[in-house]
């Protein structure tokens, strides 16, 4: 993997990806932030050596380098998931690349379902902690200790200082920002009524199919990391209706402007 990382980084440096400070991962239906970025360079994933390729039709598949609020940023427009057939090492490979390019802060977004029925679709949730239900670890491979501490501490995986700033920004802008626990499952099928009940019993406030692997690797690399979920549907097992994925994407797009306010204001303070 070290050889692959070196090849990928060398390619991107040659393309002009010069010392980004902040990495941003955009989740399903969350691409409008790019309208705020002064784009300096962009490369399709399928042109980057050793990079996975986005296979889901609504994930764009570009790595973008530019400026946002006076900071050099690198943005993943589209991410990778276990449900696409990738390994956990594939899914998190871009985080390792962004760290090698120079980022010290990683901001992650996702679309997720609200398990906590006090939370409503169209609102945002700041992730305070998570539950890994993906059946594996992105650190479980031979030689991981050459890239960072094998036994990575996860007592506080989300940066408390950044989370405090997010809450202050939300309050100042009259944005509803819940705080809670995100459960990450494999997918791609959505959950049954019994699974929603189980997730609630486990203490999850929201559920999705991403984010946790990237957070684990970000902690492995000692990055400052924070994540915000856009709540796209309400997962009430007693009143469960069939979910239309196009409706989820539409709800993510509708709620995204508030997430953009949070991300822009936060980046300004870094």
Automatic annotation (TrEMBL):
Pathway: Purine metabolism; purine nucleoside salvage. Keywords: Glycosyltransferase, Transferase. GO terms for molecular function: purine-nucleoside phosphorylase activity. Residues 22-268 form the Nucleoside phosphorylase domain. Its EC number is 2.4.2.1. InterPro entries: Nucleoside_phosphorylase_d, Nucleoside_phosphorylase_sf, Purine_phosphorylase. The keyword Transferase applies. It comes from the Bacteria. Coiled coil: none annotated. The purine nucleoside phosphorylases catalyze the phosphorolytic breakdown of the N-glycosidic bond in the beta-(deoxy)ribonucleoside molecules, with the formation of the corresponding free purine bases and pentose-1-phosphate. Belongs to the PNP/MTAP phosphorylase family. This is Purine nucleoside phosphorylase.
């Amino acid at each position: 993997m070290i050889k692959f990382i070196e090849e990928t980084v060398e390619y991107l440096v040659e393309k002009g990806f010069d010392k980004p400070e902040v990495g941003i991962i955009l989740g399903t239906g969350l691409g409008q932030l790019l309208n705020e970025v002064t784009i300096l360079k962009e490369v399709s994933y399928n042109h980057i050596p050793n990079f996975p390729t986005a296979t889901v039709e609504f994930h764009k598949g570009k790595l973008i380098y530019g400026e946002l609020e006076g900071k050099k940023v690198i943005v993943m427009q589209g991410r990778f998931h276990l449900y696409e057939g990738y390994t956990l090492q594939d899914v998190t490979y871009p985080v390792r690349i962004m760290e090698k390019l120079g980022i010290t802060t990683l901001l992650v977004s996702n679309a997720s379902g609200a398990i906590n029925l006090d939370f409503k679709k169209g609102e945002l949730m700041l992730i305070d902690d998570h539950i890994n239900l993906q059946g594996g670890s992105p650190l479980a491979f031979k030689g991981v200790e050459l890239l960072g501490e094998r036994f990575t501490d996860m007592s506080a995986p989300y940066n408390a200082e950044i989370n405090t700033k997010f809450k202050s920004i939300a309050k100042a802008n009259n944005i509803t920002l819940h705080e809670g626990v995100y459960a990450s499952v494999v997918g791609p099928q959505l959950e049954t009524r019994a699974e929603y009940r189980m997730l609630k019993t486990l203490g999850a406030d929201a559920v999705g199919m991403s984010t946790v692997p990237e957070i684990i690797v970000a902690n492995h690399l000692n990055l400052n990391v924070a994540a915000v979920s856009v709540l796209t549907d309400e997962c009430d097992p007693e009143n469960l209706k069939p979910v239309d994925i196009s409706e989820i994407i539409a709800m993510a797009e509708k709620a995204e402007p508030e997430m953009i306010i949070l991300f822009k204001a936060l980046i300004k303070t870094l």
